[in-house]
Amino acid sequence: MKKFLLSLAVIAFVGSQAFAQTQIKPGIGVNATNVTGEGNDAKGQLGWQVGASVAFGEKFYFEPGLFYQTNSFDFSTPTAGPVTDLTYSGLRIPVAVGLDVLGNADSFAGLRIFGGGSAFLVTGTSSDSVSKDEIESPQWGVFAGAGLDIAIFYIDASYQWSLSNVQTDIDQIDLGKTKGFFLTAGLRF
């Protein structure tokens, strides 16, 4: 019984400390995604994302998130001709680890660096020529970036490299992998 009560007290203490060092971060932003495929002319366009993440930790932190995101680009091939405004959307699940270089989670202002991995689960497309089933899902990626915190506001800039091809059938059109720049701003509570 003593071990049980001691264990319960330790879990309660650790849980209260973890909650005290937790930040909820809703945000909205833009992304510019491009593709690396061969045999086509692709040009990235602006997309957007909206969602939230939760940061656990003070100086060194762990931050999982969930964002609804759109990726958009124009492309054409020598055989298929132009296909305009290929936009696909889905859920991006980033998981980052980071370090507050200047300040910490409780500071008025701070500078952070972070990196991690992400999964992108495709939920649909807005193209007549490419269906949801032709887009690879999940798409895996790695990213790195930096963030600035001022009072309750934050802004994050990151760059992501995809580890997965965009489409499932590369015999017809090889769009390759995505590379993208993300800019997200929001609040931190």
Brief characterization of the structure:
The chain is mainly beta and 189 residues long. The chain contains 1 helix and 8 strands, in the order αββββββββ. It has a single domain (22-187), classed as Porin.
Structure description:
With 189 residues, this protein is mainly beta. The protein has a single domain (22-187), classed as Porin (Beta Barrel), CATH 2.40.160.20. It has one helix and eight strands. An eight-stranded antiparallel beta barrel has the order 1-2-3-4-5-6-7-8. It starts with a helix and ends with a strand. The model is unreliable at 12-19 (pLDDT under 50).
Poorly predicted runs: 12-19
- Please identify, by name, the CATH architecture: Beta Barrel
Looking at how many chains there are and whether they match, the oligomeric state comes to: single chain
- CATH class, named Mainly Beta
According to CATH, the fold-level topology is Porin
Descriptive labels:
mainly beta, Porin, 1 helix, 8-stranded antiparallel beta barrel, 8 strands, about 190 residues
SSE topology sketch:
Blueprint: H1 2-20, E1 22-35, E2 41-57, E3 60-77, E4 81-102, E5 109-125, E6 139-150, E7 153-165, E8 177-187
Antiparallel strand pairs: 1-2, 1-8, 2-3, 3-4, 4-5, 5-6, 6-7, 7-8
